[in-house]
Write a structure and sequence with these properties.
It is a single chain. The chain is mainly alpha-helical. It has four domains: about 140 residues, HUPs (Rossmann fold), CATH 3.40.50; about 150 residues, Rossmann fold (3-Layer(aba) Sandwich); about 55 residues; about 90 residues, Arc Repressor Mutant, subunit A, CATH 1.10.10. It contains 19 helices and twelve strands. The protein has a three-stranded parallel β-sheet. A three-stranded antiparallel β-sheet has the order 4-5-8. The protein has a two-stranded antiparallel sheet with strand order 6-7. It is elongated, with a radius of gyration of 32 Å. The model has no long low-confidence stretch (mean pLDDT about 95).
Length: about 475
């Protein structure tokens, strides 16, 4: 086995990339990327009835949105069926596997009789040690010769050593009667041929490891490092499912969660590094290790996800945030921003991103920058406008015409204006928010003025004064 770490993510294309799969992919990506290794992608599309090109596309898009880049082209398991069958025939030729001619009816009768006698119902084929000269000219499967004495130890980096008695292992079918390979064989051959050094996957595959080790041992291949990670549970402690509103990765994009926040949250779901909750990709790659993965299932918590997403939005680069927000709008099927709106949004990021946990929240707070004149006030804003006279807004315009449009000067001008009228600036702030944004909850009045610029600010105040005057 090479010194370079090679991990893989191997989804079945029968649906979208669910959140458990996204976390498995993330763990494999972090482990490889943090060690200068390779992260490979294999599409396990051997189930031809349920595998669809649309599902494959959805998985690739989900991984791309998550920012999990893979090395080389994705490998299709189905296209490698000849190679899988070749390994089964090699084991047959070496006497490590055998042809079994038992029919389904015979296997069922064996199990029924064993059940009646209180014995193990694990099928023991009468063909295991049969002389090939006695083989009938009938369809057969190829079964591996499982070890019958001793134990198999799965040395797992998360679960610890798991020991299985070999008399509990059956002579697993490798090649079906129609010559097609079974999934267990395909996985081992693919992992070996792809040079996979570490198999990091859900602990629902733990029992598979003992059966797959039979193939590694029979072929004389090195066994990869195993790491079987606990599944994700819902808030009620039961396995995460559609009942909990479990969604595909892309649906979280369409709901407006930033990818960096999603990566951070999923990394913390079942893995920890001290008390660190918030961390960057660079830190995650540096810190991630199999020893930090817990044995207990993690619980999916939407509030924690939102909190981390808010922290990532706050520290994001403005241009990158604009780009991701535009991708969110496309994913959510919402109208795209014009270039003017996009530029205004980017200018406004400094006063938006500290208070938004998701992109819909950020867009709502950015309403003042994205709206075009005349800005229609919503119900609350209209009430705020009704508390001032049109004269006050009209009188404010010449004062602002002479302001130098820096924050300090705007604060001084508006403060003095309020004082001259025997009121506090706070009383003036509500109507100004309504005039500039058409909303009652907005970023600070001064921040909005700086983003909009002098001409647009004055034009919106004139519009609002006209509206108040006509009421």
């Amino acid at each position: 086995m090479s010194d370079q770490v090679v991990t893989r993510f191997a989804p079945s294309p029968t649906g979208f990339l669910h959140i458990g799969g996204a976390r498995t992919a993330l763990f494999n990506w972090l482990y490889a990327r943090g060690r200068g290794g390779k992260f490979l992608l294999r599409i396990e599309d051997t189930d031809r009835e349920r595998s669809t090109p649309e599902a494959t596309q959805a998985i690739l898009q989900g991984l791309s949105w998550m920012g999990l880049d893979w090395d080389g082209d994705p490998i299709s398991q189905f296209t490698r069926a000849d190679r899988h069958a070749e390994v089964a025939r090699q084991l047959l030729a070496e006497g490590k596997a055998y042809k079994c001619f038992s029919t389904q009816d015979e296997i069922a009768a064996f199990r029924e009789s064993a059940r009646a006698e209180g014995k193990s119902t694990q099928f023991r084929s009468p063909w295991r040690d049969a002389d090939p000269a006695t083989h009938p000219d009938l369809p057969s499967v190829i079964r591996i010769k499982a070890p019958q004495q001793g134990t198999t130890v799965i040395r797992d980096q998360v679960q610890g050593d798991v020991t299985i008695r070999n008399d509990q292992l059956d002579d697993m079918v490798l090649l079906r009667g129609d010559g097609t390979p079974v999934y267990m064989l395909a996985v081992v051959v693919d992992d070996h041929d792809m040079g996979v050094t570490h198999v990091i996957r859900g602990d629902d595959h733990l029992n598979n490891a003992a059966r797959q080790m039979m193939i590694y041992d029979a072929m004389g291949w090195p066994v990869p490092v195993w790491a079987h990670i606990p599944l994700i549970h819902g808030p009620d402690g039961k396995k995460l499912s559609k009942r909990h509103g479990a969604l595909g990765a892309q649906e979280y994009q369409a709901m407006g969660y930033p990818a960096a926040g999603m990566r951070n949250y999923l990394a913390r779901l079942g893995w920890s590094h001290g008390d660190n909750e918030f961390f960057t990709d660079a830190q995650a790659k540096e810190w991630f290790d199999l020893s930090g993965i817990g044995k207990s299932p993690a619980r999916f918590d939407l509030k924690k996800l939102e909190s981390l997403c808010g922290q990532h939005i706050a520290v994001s680069d403005d241009a990158a945030l604009r780009q991701e927000l535009e991708a969110y709008l496309a994913a959510a099927g919402k109208p795209a921003l014009t270039s003017t709106q996009g530029d205004a949004l980017e200018r406004a990021m400094f006063c938006l991103k500290d208070r938004a946990k998701t992109f819909p929240e950020l867009i709502e707070k950015a309403h003042f920058a994205l709206a075009s004149r005349p800005v229609e006030p919503d119900e609350k804003a209209a009430k705020a406008l009704a508390t001032v006279s049109d004269g006050m807004l009209s009188e404010l315009t010449p004062q602002l015409q002479n302001a130098s449009w820096t924050r300090n000067d705007l604060e001084a001008t508006l403060g003095a204006f309020a004082e001259d009228r025997g009121t506090k600036f706070g009383k003036l702030a509500g109507p100004l928010r309504a005039a500039l944004a058409g909303r009652a909850v907005t970023p600070s009045v001064f921040d909005m003025m700086l983003v909009l610029g002098q001409d647009e600010t004055l034009a919106r105040l004139r519009d609002a004064a006209g509206r108040v005057g006509s009421n």
